[in-house]
Structure formats: structure tokens, C-alpha cells
């Protein structure tokens, strides 16, 4: 059976206790954070990049759970974002937890890790989300999320489990994420960030 990029096949013999469905070791954690801006210095000069503190908080919570409660080695986890500012902020936050891999989606291309945490960054209050968005609106408010190739790369880097952190209401404006969210919802793999990771006993 062929497995498309949009339908990754996970190599899981002993799934972690955090998953809702052991056959589908993945979760979309809904959080309504706020986009902020950070100037990144590049060859072209100062480039404004986005970050999202609420998502960084959730990334830290998930990462610490994987390492300290589930016993996953730091080198087997890749944290991804499409935004350099988010990657920089995550690296700073997780230094104390000995994080090893924080990469942009482009920088992650060609690599695979047991577990991937993908922070989407883009967010809007619900009242600002268009019910029938135009292509121009999507370009302005979803940015890199509209890059189907990058999204396919991001969704296929994990061998054993994938955690996506983002604003589900905004992501539904993107065709790929709208279908993904419907699929995750059917399998019980969609929840508010405050409920994930679930409270659990330490693994022996």
C-alpha cells in the first residue's frame, strides 16, 4: 500500500502513553496565541519575523513531557516552525532543557526524527477570521502556511509521533489543514492545548 505525503505511516511498536489513539500517534493542540514580531538580521538587512509566545509555552510543556515523563532522548525530537523568530525564541526557552534540534521547516527537509513538534505561529482572534476568505486574505494572514510543499515536509518528518500546535480556527482557512483537522477530529486527535499532554503517572 502506497503511503502519500499527506498520510504518513508511523513506525510505532510501543506507543507513548500521551496519545489518544495508539494507531494514530499524533495530536493537534489548539491554542489562540498572539502573533508578535522580531527583527532578524540577514544578508538583506533586518527582516521582520513572527513568533507566538503562547505556542512557545505549549512547545516547552510538550517537550518536557516527552523527555522527562516519557523518557524520549532529546536527540530524537525535532521542534519545527516556519518562522526564524519562533525557532530562535524556542531555542532560548529550551536551553535549560538541553534541547538539540530546533529547525525551520526548510532546514528540516531531508531529515527524520522519532518525534516532531510543529509550531504554526500564525493566529488571529476569532472575530477577525473571515468565513469565506479570499486568496489575498489567506496570503496576508496565513503566510507560509499556504506553502503546500513546506506543509508536506513538516507533516512527514516524524517516525513515531507528531504534535502540531496552532490556532485551529485560523488553520481551517487552509485547504490542507481543513482536511487534516477533520481527520484528526474523527480520530480524537484534536484538543485544546490546556488538555495536552494529559496528566499521567511517570512511566516506569
TrEMBL record:
Keywords, alphabetical: ATP-binding, Helicase, Hydrolase, Nucleotide-binding
InterPro entries for this protein: Coronavir_polyprotein_1ab (IPR050534), DNA2/NAM7-like_C (IPR041679), P-loop_NTPase (IPR027417), SF1_C_Upf1 (IPR047187)
Domain of life per record: Eukaryota
Molecular functions per Gene Ontology: 5'-3' DNA helicase activity; ATP binding; hydrolase activity
Domain (DNA2/NAM7 helicase-like C-terminal) ranges: 14-168
PANTHER family: DNA2/NAM7 HELICASE FAMILY MEMBER (PTHR43788), HELICASE WITH ZINC FINGER 2 (PTHR43788:SF16)
Protein name: DNA2/NAM7 helicase-like C-terminal domain-containing protein
Amino acid at each position: 500500500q502506497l503511503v502519500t505525503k499527506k498520510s504518513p505511516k508511523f513506525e510505532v511498536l510501543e506507543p507513548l502513553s500521551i496519545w489518544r489513539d495508539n494507531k494514530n500517534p499524533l495530536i493537534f493542540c489548539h491554542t489562540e496565541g498572539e502573533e508578535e514580531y522580531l527583527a532578524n538580521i540577514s544578508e538583506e538587512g533586518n527582516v521582520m519575523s513572527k513568533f507566538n509566545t503562547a505556542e512557545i509555552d505549549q512547545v516547552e510543556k510538550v517537550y518536557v513531557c516527552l523527555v522527562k515523563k516519557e523518557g524520549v532522548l532529546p536527540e530524537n525530537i525535532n521542534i519545527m516552525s516556519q518562522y526564524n523568530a519562533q525557532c530562535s525564541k524556542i531555542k532560548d526557552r529550551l536551553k535549560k532543557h538541553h534541547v538539540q534540534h530546533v529547525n525551520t521547516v526548510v532546514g528540516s527537509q531531508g531529515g527524520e526524527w522519532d518525534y516532531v513538534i510543529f509550531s504554526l505561529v500564525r493566529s488571529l482572534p476569532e472575530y477577525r477570521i473571515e468565513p469565506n476568505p479570499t486568496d489575498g486574505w489567506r496570503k496576508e494572514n496565513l503566510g507560509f502556511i499556504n506553502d503546500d510543499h513546506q506543509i508536506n515536509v513538516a507533516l512527514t518528518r516524524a517516525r513515531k509521533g507528531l504534535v502540531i500546535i496552532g490556532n485551529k480556527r485560523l488553520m481551517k482557512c487552509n485547504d490542507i489543514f481543513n482536511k487534516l483537522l477533520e481527520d484528526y477530529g474523527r480520530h480524537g486527535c484534536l484538543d485544546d492545548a490546556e488538555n495536552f499532554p494529559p496528566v499521567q503517572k511517570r512511566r516506569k
